[in-house]
Amino acid sequence: MIVAAHGWPGLPLFVLVIGCMVFARTAAMSFNRIVDWEIDLRNPRTAHRHKLLKKSQALFFCSLSGAFFWITASWINHLCFALAPVAIALIFFYSLTKRFTHYAQFFLGLALAVSPVGAWIAVKGTLDWPPLILALGVICWVAGFDIIYATQDVEIDRSEKLYSMVVWLGIPDALRLAGWLHFFLLITLIAFGAMTQQHFGYYLFLISLPFLLLYENRMAKTLQLNAINRAFFQTNVVVGCLFLAATCAGL
After folding, report:
1. How large a percentage of the chain has pLDDT more than 70?
2. Using an 8 Å Cβ cutoff, are 128 and 211 in contact?
3. In terms of residue numbers, what domain contains 233?
4. Count of the separate structural domains present in the chain
5. In whole angstroms, how large is the CA radius of gyration of the chain?
6. What DSSP designation does 125 have?
7. Smallest Cα–Cα separation from 86: which of 62, 111, 63, 58?
8. Collapsing DSSP states into helix, strand and coil, what is residue 201?
9. For the domain that residue 38 is a member of, what is the CATH number?
10. Which of 4, 126, 166, 202 is in Cβ range 3.0-4.6 Å of 150 for a Cys bridge?
11. Distance between CA atoms of 196 and 250, rounded to whole angstroms?
């Protein structure tokens, strides 16, 4: 959004885009809770979630958030309104993929990859190559860190006959794949910077990114729950904030 607008996009558009993000994420998380209700109940790591939210509440939040997402998108421009159902379909579809394909982590990446594309369209009203390159980077980033996260549930997934890259490849090979995906993320971010003519500040902020990703992947190889959670939650927050800072500096 910032790159497409060459700076601050204005408060009204900013609020609408953030609103779309919040509504889409709430709808997707609620839908995931609904369709995985019984599976989560049998998983010791996720069983406590049922104490926090009833299925009827999840259905209410899912429906309401999905409707508000479409309404908010309609206030941005015609193309956002037209593509809103596609975005909702993608983020809902991810929750079903682990039932039939080992590429579930890549579908999660695809679901989140619509974010930079949607933000670009919100500003420009058209689609172009830079957000698609960034979307490819998001797929690599998300698939990589979700593979790391999935190592916690490999035995549960096998017992439930669910699919994932970790179930298919085994933990060591899956973690190697995660490392390669994060390497490709770096390439896409450099390409994105070149295509959008980012200044020196963009690349200066990206210098620390490889070290963060290396740290994340090293923590994952310990297979300790605390280390995996630190790699998944804390490190990725820093990576996201760092990229935001890089785009601002690049302008």
Report:
1. 98
2. no
3. 2-250
4. 1
5. 18
6. S
7. 111
8. helix
9. 1.10.357.140
10. 166
11. 9
